[in-house]
Fold this sequence. Notes:
Blueprint: E1 9-18, E2 21-31, E3 34-39, H1 46-54, E4 61-66, H2 75-80, E5 82-85, H3 97-107, H4 112-125, H5 141-152, E6 159-163, H6 171-185, E7 190-194, H7 198-204, E8 207-212, E9 215-221, H8 222-225, E10 233-238, H9 241-254, E11 256-263, E12 266-272, H10 278-286, E13 290-296, H11 301-309
Parallel strand pairs: 3-7, 3-8, 5-6, 6-7
Antiparallel strand pairs: 1-2, 1-4, 8-9, 10-12, 10-13, 11-12
Helix pairs in contact: 3-4, 4-5
Amino acid sequence: MGEINKPKITAKGVLVKFGKTIALDSFNAEIPVGISGLLGPNGAGKSTFIKSILGLIEPVRGKIKIQGVKENSHLIERRDIIGYMPEHQCLIEDMKGFELVSYMSRLSGLPRDDAVERAHALLDFVGLGEERYREISSYSTGMKQRVKLAQAITHDPEILLLDEPTTGMDPDGKEEMLDLIRKIGEFDKTILISSHILHEVEQVSDYVVIIDQGKTIKCGFMDSIMSTDDGRYKLKIRGSEENIHKFINKLDSISKIIQSMKEKNQVTLVVTGLNDTSKVFDFVEKGNIQLRYIRPDLLTLEDFFLESFSGR
């Protein structure tokens, strides 16, 4: 992956306030075509950013630009190309699933017959079978999530904003939802997933935006963020408690120990900044320590997230 070429969504210096509370603070981000993850702690400003893209919230300062939409155009033009799957339950409970999706299709401008055909196709796509003829009030949370996705894509939007799309789904349902997102992403869509479930975002996203206290912590392609060119290694050692303690002190002098897990007479360590592994073998030989393994450690999104927020 290289640099972003003409990002689909660009936020520059966005300030959003609710009274004295600052929700987005000089926020900057670029969202490319493809699947992107929007990550951050509760209250970080994720939902505020999504609502600002939709035009539901007007920034005090700064701009959010969408490629292909004129800056001063009416909000309807913006929403014509955006699909939105909110986190909260927003469905009309006394409507049947099929009725709701066909109604949303008609609102998007389709004639009645086309709207009916579109609704059936979308409900097939999201995996809602005969349940589509039942009232939504009888649905499980997972079934409601499927209907929410169907209504979000009824007008075939260029941009899809998904706020916690797997909430309330069982493990199989979550995997199916992630697979649906992958399939939608194959059609040159711009998909932004706001989620607190890091491994799910890691499974489907090419790009990630990390936000905290309304500020951008990190933006980048996943393969760049997960890069391990900082001398990151995982190793497991075995020996007496005294010898392990001496070994760790020596290892700490040539690298930074960021994780340590002890079990009985062995310890698993993750280090960064280890530029010369031969010194590790020298410490092992002289310290009467058994080295079980040493190998480059692949950084996970959870690792990156935890390290980014450690000490904050």
